[in-house]
């Protein structure tokens, strides 16, 4: 029956698409987009290394062939550049050297805002892009601006552009009267390549003229062709290169000063600590590298954006820890690795209160788990096989409780010793295709349950790279007991699969897909899945215009439809959801976008938080959402972003307590101006307002004595669910300011205040048939949550890969309920400012030591 429903839904969607004219025009079929011819450039070996000074005045530069005649990609694809670019490549036994001259109208036309590392800002740039294994899938990017700011990244099918990757390399620039010059030295220790007598690398060179918003490429990159690395040229003439011993050590030492006004006789307001550790990078061979962090310290990471979460799902936070953002493209295959699980909140953090004896209070309960170490091994062989191994170990974590009378203290285990492990095998195939195998495993000490997920991915594209098949399958397994309990976790074996086929290149694209996530599929011990138990099929169309017309530079459009069911029991969730939208880039460099979706009927099986799922559900009337926004020209000193969204809900004829449920609506508005004072100083401000009127949602179990906001994604096994009709208003203000002294010294500060107020109008009981029943429940469950953070960073890169950072962090939060909950923003802001704040000042010094820099130079 399930299969029949899936196929019927899929066929209906395809028929609906045809009925609405969502196919290519019946006129003459346009030619399929093809890759531009591969250009070749000869690299020249040099016996004398050029001085990296941005001059290009050594005679050896004139012996190298020139890469020129760049082709525009945006805004007018295929047009030759007007202001010539010339690039030359040299190499020796240790480094690759790139010299580039970019002609322009005048110095004033060469924009060069100073910014932090890995941030181009409002600036021109030049970049070299290397595919060292020539697999046309994976590559490196090294970019420099006229101000000398460095940007580096990795490219892969899994992560796209990974800007978190960092390498140690050297560059110098110089701006002349009608040109600017870039000179780069890329050590072989920064990249990986196979050991072979003669190398053939993929290569491309790119340039941006910010004053005209034009981008150019040496080997043409066509926007209508799927892929990026596969559109690069070839670098020839690299002979007798020996992959170097890649061994570096980056030790660090840090000092922390923390202050919180406990103002209690037996507790100090101020504490200090000294930390130390090291990062190690070792090239096991020419293909594989080991990265390890020993006794890691993440105390200087920017603060998370705390929010009030009323949904049944946990909040996904951005990963800001460098070790977990750098070089993780292999581990992101299949999206079953959520790095915030490593060193996350202890699994027994919320259970400490339930283990207190009479007269005891919690003195300390760490909200993060300490890591002992973390290690990555990754690389790719000359045959295109990528291998990634990740391992991390977290220590036992304890909460400390104290008896008020005897003052005796004891520890409660909140997290056992835990091992996290990932293994990835990724084989590059012809025609921009690949096959991958991934396994994640979490093993905990003792009887606490373990978890394992295994998955496979296959992407097959045709020779012309116009159509592709994408197949994915995953299997999850959990075994053991719940933490601090003799009850076994439900021994769950679950599965997920997904199939997608479509046209991936050209102006007109389309795809159809089908997927199932079983009700027992659970990758969340090391991954992130908000909700399983789903069957979904959809059809998607897109039509893009890449060349300028009328007042538009580029136009992207999409539309589609889907049908969603529960996997068990087989009941529909969304009956034929429709969506569409477009993004327009005008010739005045104003970008605008609009999106919409329409769901005639929706059933919410997850907000009631009842196990087994499907026993209760909330019927919601049809709803229509539309949102849009615009971004102005960032070249101007004053620019802005504006976002607006709203959702309308159809009238609900149900009568609860004599009241017809009408007037439900969601609103959202964000205004974000930015002002660039000069090339050193800039400000960005964002004000956001969200309002949900007459929202109906979970308000707890009827036997609950506290509002379950600490763990909103937990299930309620009672089955007697209280629903509340509420008004939720949220205001967020964020101010960012930055002053960049030089391309190696910068100061940034970020201040954020978040306020969310929940006011309940009435309550009802959820019945087993999904209907609501009036209740005389009268308890005041109004809530206000405030969070305030300041993060200030002074960063100095005093040597390649070496850094001194001084960080000030200020934070506070308040959770007010019942009569204390205030809806007024400024009252909440004043209360937040006047509540106790935690202040932390830290200084950390790390120094990059490279074996190749320390060993004696070999005489030629």
Q: What does the secondary structure layout of this molecule look like, with pairings?
A:
Blueprint: H1 2-19, E1 40-42, E2 44-45, E3 71-74, E4 85-91, E5 95-103, E6 125-131, E7 139-144, E8 150-156, E9 160-162, E10 170-175, E11 179-187, E12 196-209, E13 214-217, E14 233-241, E15 247-259, E16 270-283, E17 288-294, H2 322-325, E18 360-364, E19 371-380, E20 385-394, E21 397-403, E22 409-415, E23 418-429, E24 433-444, E25 450-461, E26 467-479, E27 493-503, E28 508-517, E29 534-545, E30 552-565, E31 572-586, E32 591-599, E33 602-604, E34 618-620, E35 623-631, E36 638-649, E37 655-656, E38 659-660, E39 665-676, E40 681-701, E41 721-742, E42 745-766, E43 772-774, E44 783-799, E45 802-817, H3 825-834, E46 838-846, E47 849-850, H4 851-854
Parallel strand pairs: 1-14, 2-4
Antiparallel strand pairs: 3-13, 4-5, 5-11, 6-7, 6-12, 7-8, 8-9, 10-11, 12-13, 12-14, 15-16, 15-46, 15-47, 16-17, 17-19, 18-21, 19-20, 20-23, 21-22, 23-24, 24-25, 25-26, 26-27, 27-28, 28-29, 29-30, 30-31, 31-32, 32-35, 33-34, 35-36, 36-39, 37-38, 39-40, 40-41, 41-42, 42-43, 42-44, 44-45, 45-46
